[in-house]
Design a protein that fits this description.
With 407 residues, the protein is an alpha/beta fold. Helices cover 46% and strands 11% of the residues. The strands form 3 sheets. It has a 4-stranded parallel β-sheet, sandwiched between helices. The longest helix is centred in the middle third of the chain and has 36 residues. It starts with a helix and ends with a helix. Bound molecules: iron/sulfur cluster (SF4).
C-alpha cells in the first residue's frame, strides 16, 4: 500500500545545472588543483564544456582585459590575475553565469603530515579578494554582466572541512537546490580526480627516469611554483631546454613510490637525520609553506638521483617567499655535483635573447659534463637502485674492457 500511494517524481527533483557556465581563472594554485575543481563541478552537474578556464597569461591578455583594473600588489603572478578575470567577464562568446575563484588556504601536498603545514603564500590566498576590487571600484562589473562571483575560503589539505567551506562560502546561493550531501559527494569526486591525475603524472615521470637510467642519459629537474608552468609566467624556459633533447621533470610530479623513496632517503632515515622520505627538517625546519616545502624537497631528491644532471630554478619578480630559499636550494643541489642554473625575477617580458644564450650555456655544460656527473653520483649512491633493471644493479665493466682480448 505505501508503495502504491507513494508519489513517484517524474523528473529528477534537483534543478538541472547542465546549462550553467562556470569560469575559473587559470592562475596561481589552480595550476596544481585544477583536477579537483573539474571533478567537483562535474559531480555537481556542470557539463565539461561549460567549465571554462581562462587562457594562458600574456601581455596581450592583461592589456585587453585588465587595463585600468589593476590593484596594488608587487608580485607579478598576482598582478596577472586581473587579465584572467577580465577575460572571463568580457572575453567570452557565450557569457558565464559564475566566476569561481577560491581563496585556497592549504594545499593537499604529498608532503602533508611530514612537514609543519602546507599553507599557501598569503598573497596567493588573498588574491581573489584583492583582484576583485578592480572590478567593483566604480560599479559591480560582475552583477552588470549577470555573473555571480564566488570566492570561498578553502583548506584543501583538510578534507573534512572542505564541503562546509564550499557550501557556506557561496556555492549554496550560486547553485540553487544544492544540499550538503551533494556537496560532500562532489568534494569526494574532486579529491579522486586530483589523486588520479597526480598518480598518472608521477607514473610518467618515473618512466622518464627509468629511461634515463637504462640509457645512462641525463635529465633536468625544474624547481619552481606550480604557476611557472603557465607559459606567460615561466616563459617556457624548460621547453627551450627540452628542444635540445633533455627530458624535463617537475618536482611537483616527481615519482614518490615507496621503493624509490626508501632507496634515496633510507640512509638518512637510518642515520636519524630525518623521520621519513618527505621530512625536510634537516634543511628547512620552518616547513610551513607548501610550495616552498616541495621546492626544498625537490632539491634533496635531485641531489640523490644520479640521472638528474641539472636543476633549473625559476622564481618570479619580487617573490618574498622564494628569497630565503635561494641559497639552501643551490647548496643542496651543487654539493651533490649536480649542475644548477637559476632564472630569478621573471616578470612580464621574456628576455628572449638572454634566455637563448643561457639555454645554450646549459646545454653546453650538459653535453660536456652530464656523463661524468651521472658516474660520480652513481658511485656515491646506495646499491640496488629501483630505477635500473635488475641486471644492471651491479656496476658492470665497460663493454670495451669486457671484449678486450686476454693477455
Ligand atoms: S610572494 Fe612569491 S609565492 Fe607569493 S604570490 Fe608572490 S611570487 Fe607567488
Amino acid at each position: 500500500m505505501p508503495r502504491w500511494f507513494a508519489r513517484t517524481p517524474s523528473v529528477d527533483p534537483r534543478p538541472s545545472r547542465a546549462k550553467l557556465r562556470v569560469g575559473i581563472p587559470r592562475v596561481l594554485n589552480a595550476w596544481s588543483t585544477h583536477q579537483f575543481w573539474c571533478g567537483l563541478f562535474g559531480e555537481l552537474g556542470i557539463e565539461r564544456l561549460n567549465l571554462v578556464f581562462s587562457g594562458d597569461t600574456s601581455e596581450e591578455q592583461g592589456r585587453q582585459y585588465g587595463k585600468g583594473r589593476g590593484t596594488v600588489d608587487c608580485c607579478y603572478p598576482v598582478k596577472c590575475v586581473t587579465g584572467h578575470y577580465g577575460e572571463l567577464v568580457f572575453g567570452q562568446r557565450q557569457k558565464l553565469d559564475m566566476v569561481f575563484s577560491p581563496m585556497i588556504y592549504t594545499l593537499p601536498s604529498f608532503m602533508s603530515g611530514h612537514v609543519a603545514r602546507t599553507l599557501t603564500c598569503p598573497r596567493v590566498m588573498a588574491a581573489p579578494e584583492n583582484i576583485k576590487a578592480g572590478f567593483l571600484k566604480e560599479r559591480d562589473v560582475f552583477a552588470e554582466n549577470g555573473i555571480k562571483y564566488v570566492t570561498p575560503f578553502v583548506s584543501l589539505d583538510e578534507p573534512l572541512l572542505v564541503p562546509k567551506q564550499l557550501f557556506e562560502g557561496g556555492l549554496r546561493e550560486a547553485l540553487p537546490g544544492l544540499t550538503m550531501e551533494e556537496m560532500q559527494r562532489a568534494v569526494d569526486e574532486g579529491y579522486k580526480a586530483l589523486r588520479e591525475f597526480n598518480e598518472r603524472a608521477r607514473k610518467k615521470s618515473r618512466e622518464v627516469l627509468e629511461w634515463c637510467a637504462r640509457e645512462n642519459r641525463g635529465c633536468l629537474l625544474v624547481l619552481a611554483r606550480p604557476y611557472h608552468m603557465d607559459p606567460g609566467i615561466g616563459h617556457e624556459i624548460e621547453v627551450d631546454l627540452q628542444a635540445y633533447g633533455y627530458p624535463i621533470l617537475w618536482a611537483q610530479y616527481f615519482p614518490i613510490d615507496d621503493d624509490l623513496m626508501q632507496w634515496a632517503f633510507g640512509p638518512d632515515i637510518a642515520a636519524g637525520h630525518i623521520k621519513s622520505p618527505f621530512d625536510i627538517k634537516d634543511v628547512w625546519p620552518s616547513s610551513y609553506s607548501s610550495n616552498t616545502n616541495e621546492i626544498l624537497w625537490g632539491a634533496k631528491a635531485a641531489a640523490r638521483i644520479p640521472w638528474i644532471a641539472c636543476v633549473i630554478r625559476l622564481a618570479s619578480y619580487e617573490c618574498g617567499m622564494d628569497q630565503p630559499t635561494y641559497t639552501p636550494v643551490q647548496q643542496i643541489v651543487e654539493r651533490s655535483g649536480t649542475l644548477f642554473f637559476s632564472f630569478q625575477e621573471l616578470d612580464s617580458t621574456k628576455p628572449a635573447g638572454s634566455v637563448k644564450i643561457r639555454v645554450e650555456t646549459i646545454t653546453h655544460y650538459l653535453e660536456k659534463y652530464a656523463t661524468d656527473i651521472i658516474r660520480k653520483k652513481k658511485a656515491a649512491s646506495p646499491p640496488g637502485c629501483p630505477l635500473l633493471p635488475s641486471a644492471w644493479e651491479t656496476e658492470r665493466p665497460p663493454l670495451v674492457r669486457q671484449l678486450a682480448p686476454r693477455a
